[in-house]
Amino acid sequence: MVDYIQEAMKPDFVLNSESGRYTEKACRRNSRHMLPVSDWLSDLPETVSKTDMVEVQFKNTRKWYYRNVNHLPLEKGTMVAVEGNPGHDVGEVTLVGQLVLLQMKKSRIDVENYEARVVYRIATDADIQRAEEAHALEHETMIKARKIAKDMQLEMKIGDVEYQGDGGKAIFYYIADGRVDFRQLIKVYAETFRIRIEMKQIGARQEAGRIGGTGPCGRELCCSTWMTRFSSVGTGAARLQNISLNPQKLAGQCAKLKCCLNYEVPTYEEAVSKLPDRRIPLETKMSTYYFFASDPLQGTVTYSTDQRSPVNLEIITAEHAIEIIKMNKRGEKPDNLGGKQTTAEGTEIGYANVVGQDDVRRFDKRRNNHQDGRQHRPGNRPNNHPNNRPQRS
User: Fold this and answer.
1) Under a CB-based contact definition with an 8 Å cutoff, are residues 192 and 148 in contact?
2) pLDDT truncated to tens, each residue of the chain (393 aa)?
């Protein structure tokens, strides 16, 4: 019990004696980078010794896997200098141990035949300072790169620029609808910025993931926190969930359909499969009812006596509708649907304010009937009552 209390009272930041830097606990999220991974096996030393592969993250969502050939004492949060192309890069270790192999498998990387680059050393103060100086040039470089691409009339947009840790190379992330011939553009960039240029095309969703932000749900964007693969999203997902096809509400910050539209599609598909066929009308002794609307999650169906307009709407459960369809196939007709009648606006029929209990002026009426705290009875009349006035002769 004492050991548990001492463990709980440890600070959130731990001093790494090897690197001389403070690192966060493995269970906490590192707010400086996106796509964090919680190393829930960090307290088990045997899991770290199973592999020498480590996950290193750079700016925003860019992360890759390197081999710790020198067997350095690395842990989550350690700044390292790794092999670049060419030169070296500076990044932060975000995962060590067995979970790295699981992440590589998730990224469809053949662990056995993967030729990984190596970790040179734990980053020194000089390495970190040089990387910070290079990263400070990124915004200015992006502005100039956009202007050059615009002057050359290229149909592309420079979304982000990332410098390598040694400052000798920069990755230009761009967005384009089609194929762009940027061979001349690379020559101009190399002459202007005096660095090695690498062009990398990304999509609108990847750009939103790199920039980050907050969605309409109040949480950080999924593409910048945990999503690494982007599946296509169609309007069929919105129709299945009975969501209004409003482009302004369905589009995310990337101007594409929100990825979260796909989250509940399997649940709705399962719920819709339990609903009756909307093409089959329900025959009763009173009338014929046609499908009008449905609520898959509640398992209810609304029927109307008119095919084109909401007339005599009735809400029944999906099980009851399927039972009536089976009765019709046998040649039987129920007396009525036995559902809840509603109007075209969706309000239930059969309610009326008979006693006036919902009238907001009901207290005023009662107060008028009790003047001076006395009721108007024959034996207790007010002084100004007509019967109390003197009679004229």
Assistant:
1) yes
2) 334 334 433 444 444 444 444 444 433 334 345 666 677 776 677 677 778 889 998 887 788 899 998 888 888 888 999 998 888 999 999 888 888 888 888 888 888 888 889 999 999 999 999 999 999 999 999 999 999 999 998 888 898 899 999 888 999 999 988 888 888 999 999 999 999 999 998 888 888 888 888 888 888 888 888 887 788 888 899 988 888 888 888 998 888 899 999 999 999 999 999 999 989 999 998 889 999 989 999 999 999 998 888 888 899 999 999 999 999 999 999 888 876 665 555 555 444 454 455 555 655 655 544 454 454 455 555 555 555 555 554
Task: Count how many domains the chain has.
Answer: 3
93 lies in the same domain as 141: no
Q: Which residues are registered as beta bridge partners of 66?
A: 54, 117
Q: Which residue range is the domain that position 112 belongs to? A: 11-123
Contact 81, 88 (CB under 8 A): yes
Environment class of residue 340 by beta-carbon count within 10 Å: exposed (0-12), middle (13-18) or buried (19+)? middle
Going by C-beta distance under 8 Å and a sequence separation of 6 or more, which residues neighbour residue 194? none
Residue recorded with tokens 């059969």: 350
Q: How far apart are CA 206 and CA 223, in angstroms?
A: 7
- The CATH number of the domain holding residue 189 is 3.30.300.20
Could you tell me if 16 and 75 are in contact, meaning their C-beta atoms sit under 8 angstroms apart? yes
Neighbours of 245 (CB within 10 A): 9
